[in-house]
Amino acid sequence: MExxxxxxxxxxxxxxxxxxxxxxxxxRLLALALRAPSAGHTQGxxxxxxxxxxxxxxxxxxxxxxxWRARSRRYEGLSRAPVVVLAFADxxxxxxxxxxPDKLPPEGSDVGWVVPFWFVDAGFAVMTLLLGAADAGLGxxxxxxxxxxxxxxxxxxxxxxxxxxxxxLLGEASGPDPRPVSAHRPRRTLGDSVxxxxx
Length: 199
Description:
9 helices; alpha+beta
């Protein structure tokens, strides 16, 4: 598949079958994600991969509650995803990397980190994973970090220094796939979003 087609076909899947991924597919997708850009080649993104309902159940337990699961029209379809990839960012790795001689500011002070590159890089890796899934003909969805980070961290033994960005669900798309209200919002055009030569 061409990149243009993968970008155009990629969308958030909200209903999965529980069929496992074909052998080797997940490792190929993760290897692609690890090729995403990384500031200073720091590579401070980490993935925790959960496969099968026994491993994915702690994710759902930590990040949702019974009331949400009961009222959500999407939970059943989302929770069938056979793979959940949790993306974490290691801020300490970037602080250490940008204290190395080739990255220190001329005056020798620390970087100001106006933009937290660790989350930017983790986002690049997640986007690459989502595009790779589209290229492989898989459904995928990104779920942000809204609740349960500490419970999830404890359940999976994730080090405290890592910040959780969110989860990528992967698997075979299966209907019905309830579309969100936001899917009906018009897509902004080049004219709406691109400001050439200035604002």
